[in-house]
Amino acid sequence: MGGIPTRDEILQFIAEQSGEVTKRDIAKAFNIKGADRIPLKRLLRELNAEGLLEGSRKGGMRGHGELPSVSVIQVTGRDKEGYLVARARRDGDLLDGPQDPIIEIDDNPRQNRGTRRHRPSPPVSPGDTALARLQRINQQKYVARIIRKLGDAGGQVIGMVRERNDGLWLIPADRRERHDFQLESGTKAKHGDLLVCEKLPGPRMGAKRARMKDNIGAADDPHAFSLISIAEQGLPTIFPDAVLTEADKVLEAGASGREDLTALPFITIDPADARDHDDAVFAEPDPDCDGGFIVWVAIADVAAYVIPGSEMDREARKRGNSVYMPDRVVPMLPERLSTDLCSLRENETRPCMAVRMHIRPDGKRSGHKFVRGLMRSSAKLSYAEAQRAFDGDCPAEFSQLDKPILQPLWQAYQCMAAARDQRQPLRINRPERRVEMNDKGQITRIHIPPVLEAHKLIEEMMVSANVCAAETLEKQKRTLMYRVHDTPPDERVRALSDFLRSLDVKLSLGQTLLPKLFNGLMEQAADKPFAPTISEAVLRTQAQAVYAVENIGHFGLNLGRYAHFTSPIRRYADLTVHRALISALKAGTDGQTEEEADALADIAEAVSATERRAMLAERSAGERYLAAHMSTHIGESFSARISGVSRAGLFVTLDDSGAGGLIPISRLGDERFYADENNMYMTGGTTGLTFRIGEAVEVELEEATPLKGGLLFSLLQGGTKSGKSKRGPKRRGALRRPPQRRARGRR
Question: Under CATH, which architecture does the 156-220 domain have?
Fold first, then answer.
């Protein structure tokens, strides 16, 4: 090339390049040198002024409508396959016109798949704004890799309307939002409404502004706190008409091609208030192995009703899993399936996928076999009722089941428990609280249900069935979705070692990491006052379990292979395993399709993301309901434990209710405190008074904000004298310290 190119030649050249093009690139391509660069720059300025070119701050140019390789994007929702999609933001505006490109969020690029460790992208949800690296697929589609989430650069905000003299304002429900937002004039909302709004650009130092997108109800609605959490995470709550129509037309699965298991007296053991029953168990002595047992686990055959590519299948994949909140369940499947056709109800014949396991006297499996069958539950027991029978006090209504059914089940579990104890899965004692509510959305009871052996019986049999599913599919050379749990990251283990050293507990970094290593630490500290501290620290060291097609084992369970099989009503991952088994065993024509098998890696990423989304929604809803419950206890004192340390102060969890909140650092005492977040403690600069994760403290509740799920406490008593101060002279002092008061209602 040579000479000054025409306008069309420049535009064509830029359009043919991937990414941005600089003036130097153009000059080099057209062999423009010396003084000829001046008219080229003039021509490029004209093209830019006419809107035919767009530039970046670094001097790069691209064709009109093409997005820069690094852009600010806003997550707008999910597509029909359940994947997050976004639009680009430019000059504060969302590019959501019909000609603007769609951006798909890639949470885990393909080049990272197959590696044991990689750093996942920061999780994002609908409404979030993020900085992302874009890869152009075609004129209308990009794929985005999230670099980092952005705070106030646009996005979504949810909150409650408050009427002031200068108009309507939105009080955010998210504690991370530092400002209230002024709503546009003419907004059709009233004081106390809950709104989903879009943040609007505005002057940096002026009032933040927002535009209403949706009115989700009133803040005084009994179920408002769940509604907020649902909106925050973009959870789909309404099934499309096509899905409900398809569910209504489903016919009960027949007996063709199924093994008749109705003669086996299966039973279901679930919480007393369970509405669906997706697993049943049965055990009997093994006639071919003295002291051994045959254990059956039957699971609802959801695959018989949810066909790959159907409307119900697409919706289930999009949802990923059911979400459980204190006042509601957001189900993965329509009620017609979850509480009817796929619920193993008492004395009703139901299709199932079942596994027959041979358990040796030492509790290890000597073989197993999957069948697709028909079963009938002979009884429905709660965990408490089953435990009474196992303890020798069988409820009268189940007396006929005691010796022939319940006792063999208990004896089989004793064998399996011995093998489990020898395997040594990770054992972290962290009690789970149950929040019970009435129809008015009011908390009636918060309690810690006892951990019964009946719970462990069902858990152990489900774990064994899951292992059998993974082994069978591997043997059949089928691609499957594993449930994987990586070993703790090295940096966390080093931090744990440093932390334990401060408690005079040694963790050798030279040995192979196994769950029994952590179990040993907790057993050594079982009778020590800092036992909860070590338990909490060990928990924080662990990696997060996810779904993946590459098997790295399950560290927490200490298993080499593991796949979720036992809850297809509420987890899409389990449904894919059921379909894979049907295809592998040639048990029907409704098994896994080639298309689904090829997409399993993407599905695994998607359902891992929906699982994280569900956890966030469940946690935030619970926090809000607990804050509402605690708002009637302002000024009262509580026993608590330190659950976190940050520069802002100490996070504490109350012993009785499990409610969590913050003791601001200003309310710890008169001296200055220094936080060591890595080693999870805080120390006074003068006295050396130290607070550690897991330690007991006494606190007073000073403030509760149910909308945000926040609780603020002051310290009444706690901390230990370490004898070391960060700075300043040592000074003796009592453990009881007066709280630093401040005016009620201040933030």
Answer: Beta Barrel (2.40)
N- to C-terminal Cα separation, the chain: 66
CA distance 589 to 583: 7
Query: Parallel, antiparallel, or unpaired for β 443-447 and 293-300?
Result: unpaired
- The domain spans of the chain are 7-63, 70-150, 156-220, 243-474, 490-542, 634-721
- Tell me, what's the pLDDT at 196? 92
> What is this structure's pTM?
0.76
Please give the pLDDT value at position 2.
54
Q: pLDDT for 451-508, tens place per residue?
A: 899 999 999 999 999 999 999 999 999 999 999 999 998 888 988 888 888 777 888 8
Q: 634-721 — its CATH code? A: 2.40.50.140
Question: Quick check: do 7-63 and 70-150 share a fold?
Answer: no
CATH no. for 7-63: 1.10.10.10
Which residue, chain included where needed, has tokens 């073989």? 367
Kindly report, residue by residue over 64-95, the tens digit of the pLDDT: 456 777 778 888 877 766 678 888 876 556 77
Q: Which two tokens stand for residue 311?
A: 């409307």
CB distance 706 to 650 below 8 Å: no
- Give me the DSSP letters along 6-71: PHHHHHHHHHHSSS-B-HHHHHHHTT--GGGHHHHHHHHHHHHHTTSEEE-TTS-EEETTPPPSEE
Decide if domain 70-150 falls under CATH 2.40.50.140: yes
Distance, CA of 98 to chain centre: 33
Q: What are phi and psi of 371, to 5 degrees?
A: -135, 155
